[in-house]
Design goal:
The protein is an alpha/beta fold. Helix content is about 35%, strand content about 20%. The protein has a domain at about 5-185 and about 215-240: 3-Layer(aba) Sandwich (Rossmann fold). It has helices at about 10-25, 40-45, 65-70, 95-110, 125-130, 150-165, 195-200, 220-230, 250-260, 270-280, 285-290, 300-305, 360-365, and strands at about 5, 25-30, 55-60, 75-80, 115-120, 135, 170-180, 180, 215, 215-220, 240, 250, 295-300, 325, 335, 345-350, 350-355.
Amino acid sequence: MEKVLLTGITGYIGQHCAAELLRQGHAVVGTIRSRSKADATRTAIARVASVQNLSFAEADLLSDQGWSEAMKGCSYVLHVASPFLLEEPKDENELIAPAVQGTKRVIAAAQLAGVKRLVLTSSTFAIIAGKDSGRYGPGDWSDTGANIGAYAKSKTLAERAAWESARAGDMELTVINPGAVFGPSLGAKIDGQSVTMMTKMINGKVPMVPDMAMGMVDVRDVAKLHVVAMTATGAAGQRFIACTAEPVEMATLAKVLREAGYKKAPSMKAPTFLLKFMSMVDREAKGMMPFIGKKAALDNSLTLKVLNLWAPARTCRNLAGLKLLMDLETNCRFVAMTGMRQSRRVRVRSDLWSDNSCPRCARSLRGAASGPAGPR
């Protein structure tokens, strides 16, 4: 049984990574800033995986204390901890400092502990920010000299710091670059930024749709990619894009929500001039501005080739299969189907799972069954 240290275990992606590791027979040490978060995190993960081999260690990304002890006996590290916030902070270093310093600190501790490989959660925002519309791949980097927002800058600088630190030692480094992440939250709190945005759309708190498009991925696929990349041959030294090859417009998401019965989802596009005006007083609008009007396609062929996760039969070529079903009162009916995955296990009650699929996506797949493998 391999022992894996996982940072960010209290978060949206981190809890799914923990569950996937435990299901595959690994022992997991989750780092938390306070022991008070341990019970709630254990309970959340226990809904989908046995937590017999789950333990916790106190460690803070902004402190050296606790990391050496936490790393003892660990063969691998998944460094997932880093917030995803579109809202622009008053000081960009609120995001940049913990992302960059924390990444350096975790890598240094892992190298001293003799860890074989570290898998870092980065973002497609470390690839496409500051770029015009076009197609980008693992060899591309965001332009930190442009006005790209604090989040994109933090992810870019943190990933660059990771590669620089990794070159100083023998430990292998692999990076996962997810797009917008959707899917069920294991904890009571829906803490993913993408999911939060959908919640606001459903509640009618987003009156108009921004002219924004993103590559998308299911959170369970993100977790599987992290675990596969941890040991996959050929994964060391690589960046893996984890999202649909083609960007999905926010207007498409809103349309899918309205068709699913959520009538408060917006139908009008927000004029760019209005968003520019709002960005002067609204920090979330300010955080969106660098991506308004841009549509970045992404080359995920290396991910499909090396990590071999997504089956061609489940590829929705026209991306009509994005389906979100939420019961906001109980926070237990939630699913996201991206263009990468046609069939999903839909959580309709906290104690019941069943196989369902989006009819529109299924129809598209029947018509494309003989088409080429992989995303368009």
